[in-house]
Amino acid sequence: MSATIVRTDDQNAEVRGDLLNSTVVPVLEQGRKLLAAAGGQWTVSLAAVDKVSSAGVALLLEWMREAEKQSVTLRIADLPEHMRPIISISDLDPVFETVLI
After folding, report:
1. Residue 85 and residue 73: Cα distance in Å, rounded?
2. pLDDT single digits (tens) 39-62
3. Do residues 48 and 14 make contact, with C-beta atoms less than 8 angstroms apart?
4. Mind giving me the DSSP string for 41-82?
Protein backbone atom coordinates (compact mmCIF):
# COMPACT_ATOMS: atom_id res chain seq x y z
CA MET A 1 0.00 0.00 0.00
CA SER A 2 1.25 3.49 -0.78
CA ALA A 3 1.19 6.48 1.53
CA THR A 4 -0.80 9.67 1.17
CA ILE A 5 -1.16 12.82 3.18
CA VAL A 6 -4.51 14.57 3.37
CA ARG A 7 -4.95 18.16 4.53
CA THR A 8 -7.86 18.28 6.97
CA ASP A 9 -7.64 22.06 7.50
CA ASP A 10 -4.99 24.80 7.38
CA GLN A 11 -3.07 23.47 10.38
CA ASN A 12 -3.85 19.75 10.34
CA ALA A 13 -3.14 16.79 8.12
CA GLU A 14 -3.47 13.01 8.25
CA VAL A 15 -1.04 10.47 6.86
CA ARG A 16 -2.60 7.26 5.53
CA GLY A 17 -1.08 4.00 4.35
CA ASP A 18 2.38 2.53 4.80
CA LEU A 19 5.49 4.55 5.71
CA LEU A 20 8.20 2.48 4.05
CA ASN A 21 11.28 3.15 1.89
CA SER A 22 9.17 2.85 -1.23
CA THR A 23 6.39 5.19 -0.08
CA VAL A 24 7.79 8.12 1.93
CA VAL A 25 9.36 10.33 -0.77
CA PRO A 26 6.10 11.70 -2.27
CA VAL A 27 4.63 12.20 1.22
CA LEU A 28 7.79 14.06 2.30
CA GLU A 29 7.37 16.74 -0.35
CA GLN A 30 3.61 17.05 0.13
CA GLY A 31 4.13 17.42 3.87
CA ARG A 32 6.72 20.15 3.36
CA LYS A 33 4.23 22.12 1.28
CA LEU A 34 1.47 21.72 3.87
CA LEU A 35 3.89 22.70 6.63
CA ALA A 36 4.88 25.86 4.79
CA ALA A 37 1.23 26.82 4.31
CA ALA A 38 0.23 26.08 7.91
CA GLY A 39 1.45 29.29 9.49
CA GLY A 40 2.76 28.92 13.02
CA GLN A 41 1.51 25.43 13.91
CA TRP A 42 1.00 22.11 12.10
CA THR A 43 -0.37 18.85 13.50
CA VAL A 44 -0.01 15.55 11.66
CA SER A 45 -2.11 12.55 12.65
CA LEU A 46 -0.70 9.08 12.01
CA ALA A 47 -3.88 7.27 13.08
CA ALA A 48 -4.39 5.79 9.60
CA VAL A 49 -0.79 4.55 9.16
CA ASP A 50 -0.45 0.80 8.79
CA LYS A 51 3.06 -0.55 8.21
CA VAL A 52 6.12 1.45 9.22
CA SER A 53 9.89 1.17 8.92
CA SER A 54 12.81 3.36 9.82
CA ALA A 55 11.96 5.35 6.68
CA GLY A 56 8.79 6.53 8.45
CA VAL A 57 10.85 7.74 11.40
CA ALA A 58 13.22 9.49 8.99
CA LEU A 59 10.21 11.18 7.37
CA LEU A 60 9.07 12.57 10.71
CA LEU A 61 12.60 13.74 11.53
CA GLU A 62 12.79 15.58 8.23
CA TRP A 63 9.47 17.30 8.90
CA MET A 64 10.76 18.25 12.35
CA ARG A 65 13.86 19.83 10.79
CA GLU A 66 11.75 21.68 8.25
CA ALA A 67 9.35 22.93 10.95
CA GLU A 68 12.24 24.27 12.98
CA LYS A 69 13.69 25.99 9.91
CA GLN A 70 10.34 27.66 9.23
CA SER A 71 9.60 28.43 12.92
CA VAL A 72 6.49 26.25 12.85
CA THR A 73 5.41 24.27 15.92
CA LEU A 74 4.99 20.66 14.79
CA ARG A 75 2.83 18.20 16.67
CA ILE A 76 2.58 14.51 15.82
CA ALA A 77 -0.62 12.82 16.94
CA ASP A 78 -1.58 9.15 17.10
CA LEU A 79 1.92 7.68 16.71
CA PRO A 80 1.48 3.98 15.83
CA GLU A 81 2.58 1.71 18.67
CA HIS A 82 4.71 -0.33 16.27
CA MET A 83 6.72 2.82 15.46
CA ARG A 84 7.82 3.34 19.07
CA PRO A 85 10.41 0.50 19.12
CA ILE A 86 12.13 1.97 16.06
CA ILE A 87 12.33 5.35 17.79
CA SER A 88 13.58 3.78 21.03
CA ILE A 89 16.24 1.55 19.48
CA SER A 90 17.51 4.60 17.58
CA ASP A 91 17.82 6.56 20.86
CA LEU A 92 15.38 9.16 19.54
CA ASP A 93 12.91 9.17 22.45
CA PRO A 94 14.13 12.58 23.71
CA VAL A 95 13.80 14.07 20.22
CA PHE A 96 10.23 12.88 19.79
CA GLU A 97 8.94 13.56 23.31
CA THR A 98 8.61 17.26 22.55
CA VAL A 99 6.38 16.78 19.47
CA LEU A 100 4.18 13.80 20.33
CA ILE A 101 0.65 14.45 21.50
Report:
1. 25
2. 899 999 999 999 999 999 999 999
3. yes
4. EEEEEEEEEEEE-HHHHHHHHHHHHHHHHTT-EEEEES--GG
pTM: 0.94
* Every domain of the chain and the residues it spans: 3-96
DSSP H or E stretch at residue 30:
helix 24-37
DSSP code for 38 = S
- Indicate the fold that domain 3-96 takes in CATH: Transcription Regulator spoIIAA (3.30.750)
Q: Let me know the angle formed at the C-alpha of 98 by 49 and 9, rounded to the nearest 5 degrees.
A: 50
Q: Indicate the residue type of 27.
A: V
